[in-house]
Amino acid sequence: MSVYPYVIGIVVFGLGLGGIAVSRHLVHAIVCLNVAQTGTYVLLLAVGWRRHGTAPILGGVPKGSHQVDPVVQALTLTDIVVGITVSGLLLALAIQVHRRRGTMDPDELRALRG
Amino acid sequence: MTRAGRVVLLVLGLGGLLALLAIAAADLPAFGSVHSAYAAFARHAAYADRHAANSVAAVVFDVRGLDTMIEEFILFAAATATALLLRSTREEDAERAEDHGEGDALKLFGIGGVGAVVVLGLYVVAHGYVSPGGGFQGGVVLATAAALVFLAGTYRAFRRVTPQSLLEGAESLGVLAWPALGVGTLASGSAFLANVLPPGSIGSLASAGTIPLLNAATGLAVASAFTLIGVEFLEELFAERARGEEGRS
User: Fold this and answer.
1) What's the pTM value of the predicted model, to 2 decimals?
2) pLDDT (0 to 100) of residue A35
3) Chain-chain contact of A88 with B229 (C-beta, under 8 angstroms)
């Protein structure tokens, strides 16, 4: 099935999104966000892959061989690193929520409180 | 909204989204047969034009340089906001730097590993545009060296090698190098972040024009941002422990 890898990416993305929506714990929601992000990486890399392709690097690669798409790899690369720092920020926010409201359950964070 | 209502909304929305995505996926070209014109252009720009042997690095640091600069800003903003958030409720008392004893095996492994990890990280950063690697990956490897110091040694030793002011300065320098170089290329009469330096000979360290500069700046920014985030969370952990001990006594 030639679209199978794309479907994997979409399913992983959907699992992460669903996890965020039904989450009962902020750390769980952050991990689910990372899972959803991973789905986008799978999709990106799947789009860039070529049959019998090699790494998009010169040297040590036979001349005339196909190379996979470097553009989607570059997008994935920067996104992984930036995504982890954003996860760090979200975890810091979760610590603050826990300190101020004494709960990690998003359902208990309803009303705005000054 | 009640929990049940949210689940219904989720099933409707996510179901619709996934159905649309599945229809879109069915129309995508067969896996492994995509011939993107953009990929061909990026490879040509990397190898023939910029003399960078790693075309991923050429895309990150040159062809899509503006995009990566904004990603660096996100990295900077996220690391700074993490530090601000965690520091805002932490009392700055010096008496929390308790040491934690670890096993000898972990200590030995850590002491042997720190040097090797630093060398590996520097190697991955330095050769980022001639072989697989680059500032992002090497920066993360370098940040793990600081984590090894914490694992192998004591919290006090870890804090000695990672003063916050140094990390903040290094991170700012690494991020600032991007717009600074961009303004420099503007002043030289080219486009913002254009590759204005001579390309050199492909496959050697003296190649790829401005890519090595931006690569090194990124390595610095990523290594210090990751270490800073780690430092802030560890500070938080030890402050929490100190609070717990005060509560008991």
Assistant:
1) 0.82
2) 94
3) yes
